[in-house]
Amino acid sequence: MEWLEKQKNLIDFSIQSLIRRFSKNALILIIFVSLVFAVASVLFLTGSLTSEMMSSSEELPDITVQRILGGRQVNIPASYQDRIETLSGVDAVEGRLWGYYYLSELQANFTVFGMDLGQLEEGEYQKIINWNASLPKQNNQDFRMIIGQGVYQMLKKLHSEGSYLFFQPSWDVPLPFEVIGHFKAETSLQSNDLLVIQTEGARMVLEIPEDEFTDMAVHVPNPEEVETIALKIRRMFPELRTVTKAQIQRTYHSVFSWKSGFVLTTLLASLFAFLILIWDKASGLSAEEKREIGILKAIGWDTDVILKVKLWEGLILSGSSCFLGILLSYAYIYWLEAPVLRNIFIGWSTIYPSFELKPEVDLKYVMLIVTFSVVPYSAVTIFPAWKAAITDADTIMRNTG
Prior knowledge:
Elements: H1 2-20, H2 22-57, E1 63-69, E2 72-74, E3 76-77, H3 79-85, E4 92-103, E5 108-115, H4 118-122, E6 129-131, E7 144-147, H5 149-157, E8 163-166, E9 175-183, H6 188-191, E10 194-198, H7 199-206, E11 212-213, E12 215-219, H8 226-236, E13 240-244, H9 245-266, H10 268-283, H11 287-298, H12 303-335, H13 341-346, H14 363-371, H15 374-380, H16 382-389, H17 393-399
Parallel strand pairs: 5-10, 7-9
Antiparallel strand pairs: 1-2, 1-12, 1-13, 3-11, 4-5, 4-12, 6-9, 7-10, 8-9
């Protein structure tokens, strides 16, 4: 209890000392908070986006097969599906239809994906879709679609949220596709610009022949066999390219890591200013601080007590700055949804994804920020204070006037 009481008194004295030099310490506080805020914001946003993409990538097929001719992706003949299914270790092969459709009215590209909408109406996907139960059912079930939140909002401006007329130059007349539902806002990162159309309807919109697919999804029950099966597929069809789920996940991680590194590099100027601040602190104390140490020595304070006071000053200033910077960063990323900064990470498009960032604060990031801010600043406050504290009090008083 005596030790705690002593530390409390030292902390009180340190706080009063910081307040007496308010103008100087306020400048240090602003610089410190700004730097921590910037670095923490980049690290928090990177962690959240990486976590979100990693969780969504779990739904990807084990192997995605694409046909490459002349350096460009082209459609895959449906006959390849049966041959790939014969490979040992392959559970199933699914032909997929997808592509892009430009809507001139909105001057935007939409992503079109073809599938059996019955899977969405009957499975777990029901929970992430707002269904338009009031709309009359289309006679032709192939002319139905489910749209993303961004597409829904844009079609709503055209008063076409219930249905949309698709047209291709090879068609005689436009074809109306009924919107039977739209994805909820929480899925916007993946579905914002998406049009999920019944399989045969998607073939018409994308103009893909009956005996072809855009690519194929290969499902492999044993993760240890994925790379081996991918190699067998490439040997069977040299023009095919295989992309595994692990490769996509590594790409996600690399992209966000690269972007965070790029942003942090732009903060080098701030880091340089912080280093100058530390150097200024380490190069010596002000005349006022030296005179204060001289007075303390003159009234009987020991050197170790003076050093503890200076250490507490450094810890209080750097610790509070670090805490405030991290707190502001958390509010900026997760409450304000990181305006401006997240544009750098997720890019830009006509249909910009609006989504909620889920808090994903990695403890190692917090420890990294503390280690490279609080620790060095607190440490450098000791050396100049030690030099002054071991000097005779009379000498200090005379040299500082």
